Fold this protein.
Amino acid sequence: MKDVRILFMGTPDFAVPCLEALVREGYQVVAAVTQPDRPVGRKQVLTPPPVKEAAQRHGIPVLQPERIKTAEALEEVLALRPDLIVTAAYGQILPKQLLDAPRFGCINVHASLLPKYRGGAPIHKAIIEGETESGVTIMYMVEALDAGDMLSKTVVPIEERDTAGSLFEKLSAAGAKLLVDTLPGLLAGEITPEPQDHDRATFAPTIKRAEEQIDWSKTAEQVYNQVRGLHPWPVAFTSYAGKIWKVWWVEKHGAAHADAAPGTIIALEPDGLVIACGSGSVKLTELQPEGKKRMSAFDFLRGAGSSIEIGTKVGE
């Protein structure tokens, strides 16, 4: 069944191992559909998405419609006569006309154990919420967000010091393996899809700017989970004396002073600033003051942060 015509749709690094696995297993990928090249960085260099680069390495034709729902884009995609569409973090909702076209349907590689964390930021959200496990679900795509019947799942433990970045890599690899393990049964009609329990569904929409700001009234555990859940992007932040600090890393520290309000700097240690939380405290060990480069707290306290005083507050 490896001669079925597969159309792959994906955009970021997460999707690349899935595309690579299809090629490695000998499936016929007739084209890759991905987002258009975008300006990146301070110099706004026009940069292709990772899936485009991967597809070009394998000589796979690439389509980059700005919007997949336009008549022109649909005509171009449907002309490829796909037997199966595989999506992985494509970034756009597919129209019904496209979902219904392939004879084997349209399946998605989703980075959560559905029905938990439907939406665009399931990896970040799983860590922020303090989950001890995540995983990948392969499901049929439907018009509702991540609500289709499930074909297969794999569980991936979340370690104590996992970040969004490290979990992203684990789930990306797990998703690629699960995809190629699932395809033979799917194409042979040997898998019975499992409907999701929609009453148990939770959602993980794309992270908003307000969710990146640390709320020091939360527990030390919650602050720690927020920082690692937003690492290495988009990165949590707080403020000090009217300036923004990006908070790259904190360690759980221990009990806070009983009379210290959340956000109070209660100690200055050689390797970090100890900050009171709503319950407990954390040690800020790596930061990026506004207008400066990322640095260790050790370097910060020896330089730009030498005037920081115990008893002053962050987050105001």
